[in-house]
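Standup notes, structure subgroup. Blocker cleared on the NCC input:
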Amino acid sequence: TVKLSPEQLLCQLRDGVNVSMIHGSDSPFNTSEWLRYLPEKSLNETVGRLGHCAVVSSAGSLKSSRLGPEIDSHDAVLRFNGAPVKGFQEDVGQKTTIRLVNSQLVTVEQQQFLRDALYNTGILIIWDPAPYHAEIHEWYRKPDYKFFEAYKLYRVRHPEQPFYILNPKMQWQLWDIIQENSLEHIQPNPPSSGTLGILIMMTLCDEVDVYEFLPSKRQTDICHYYQKFHDRACTMGAYHPLLFEKNLVKRINRGTDEDIYTHGKVTLPGFRNVHC
Ligand code: NCC
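Run returned:
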């Protein structure tokens, strides 16, 4: 295979990955029961057209970065899972427009998820690993984590907060493109929340700055900026094909290597600014 140019790669992502949320017309969610739980408005209607966006990885290298004000200067900010802002504003900012959570967090730590005020800000999006290119029906019967109950409980407690379920098709469309553009064989596990979040923001925004997904000079074995836990796998990947995700993002970066080195910052165009 020939190595695609950055522009070709962007076009492949734009046209090959369909970022969508589960909607009340998607069978088997097209029941009166599910209609009560799913948000009425689409994600697009809820956020409107976004200009400059930031995606904040949870990496330990955000520690002492003092990137907070720069991150908050964006129109919208996406964060992951239980990544806190309280007490860490200097390094990661305080704005949260979207929080992308995995289904493991919501089920294994269900009580915390239902109680912790951290989750009550902004728009929530949940995703769950689906079998390779499975139909929604198959996934619905056998989700990786049975998060539907937690989702419904949360919706009842916070009916005003937009909370979407990511259509699981996206993860394997994205995985296929990562595999196609890598020289090695990749384990067939879905991409990390990080790359899913980047693609979500590229769909919604004019431009996307991603922080500490590609590590800066502050790179460390500390897993998260908010925990004292060391594990290289957090940055390199174990279950998720994280290293391959990062290589792909590096190839479509429109920013400078200097920005990666000093800020851990990558700048990507929104898909509406990609012309194929
Ligand atoms: O750690 P996690 O990821 O929540 O991090 C969010 C995203 O930030 C990027 N990251 C994180 C740490 C690091 N040192 N370098 C990074 O680049 C990654 O892109 C990552 O996706 C996940 O992807 O959902 C993940 O979730 C955790 C965990 O489930 C949640 O934090 C909830 O507790 C997973 N950890 C475990 O299962 C132990 C992690 O593998 C993936």
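Discussed briefly. The mean pLDDT is 97.
Next: hand off to the docking folks.
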